[in-house]
Automatic annotation (TrEMBL):
InterPro entries: Put_HupE_UreJ (IPR032809). This is HupE/UreJ family protein. The chain crosses the membrane at residues 20-36, 43-65, 71-89, 101-122, 142-166, 173-190. Pfam families: HupE_UreJ_2. Keywords: Membrane, Transmembrane, Transmembrane helix.
Length: 195
């Protein structure tokens, strides 16, 4: 198997791994306010997240930036909680507003920087002492991006079923999903070794 394919699959499986559900929760928190018809906006959002985590993933993997793993393990659920919590205060009309959704793009990019540091420990472990890591980083990030797109499109499909077919109010859907994600994020924060 080629090196590119091997790292692509590592990235792809890493995001879809049930043990790495914290990253999935963040992507779902970002996507909770969108509908199926917003799929283009969501793809841009996920790409903003990928850009954010790609920057720190590269910097950390190259040992340019080093932050204690315990701090990152704590900050990742904090980003999930903040994103989910912000969703709770979006009114029905603001869910349709472009300005309200711009905040999620900022969250995706900035919080992606923190998530990239979380991915870096995993990637460093599988890279070892490889001298040239550009292709490996690219392949890993593309795999992550494809995995995230699958997660988000699956979530949008579930949202479509509940909102468009079963008639759940959009605001109720956002409240339920965001509250559940926020609650899980608090649990993860409390379980970290940061305390």
């Amino acid at each position: 198997m080629s090196t590119f394919k091997a790292y692509f699959l590592e990235g792809f499986h890493h995001i879809l791994d049930v043990n790495g559900y914290d990253h999935i929760l963040f992507v779902l928190a970002l996507s909770a306010i969108y509908l199926m018809k917003d799929w283009r906006k969501v793809l841009i959002l996920i790409t903003a997240f990928t850009i954010g985590h790609s920057i720190t993933l590269a910097l950390s993997t190259l040992n340019i930036v080093e932050i204690k793993a315990e701090l990152i393990e704590f900050l990742i659920p904090v980003t999930i909680f903040i994103t989910a919590f912000a969703n709770l205060f979006k009114k029905e009309r603001s869910l349709k507003s472009t300005n309200s959704m711009q905040l999620n793009y900022i969250f995706a990019l900035l919080f992606g920087l923190i998530h990239g540091l979380g991915f870096s420990n995993y990637l460093k472990a599988i890279l070892g002492k490889n001298s040239s890591i550009v292709m490996e980083l690219l392949a890993f990030n593309i795999g992550l991006e494809i995995g995230q797109i699958i997660v988000v499109l699956s979530f949008l499909l579930i949202s479509f079923i509940f909102i468009d077919i079963l008639g759940t109010k959009r605001r109720d859907w956002v409240l339920i999903i965001s509250s559940a994600i926020g609650g899980i994020a608090i649990t993860i924060m409390m379980e970290t070794k940061f305390w």
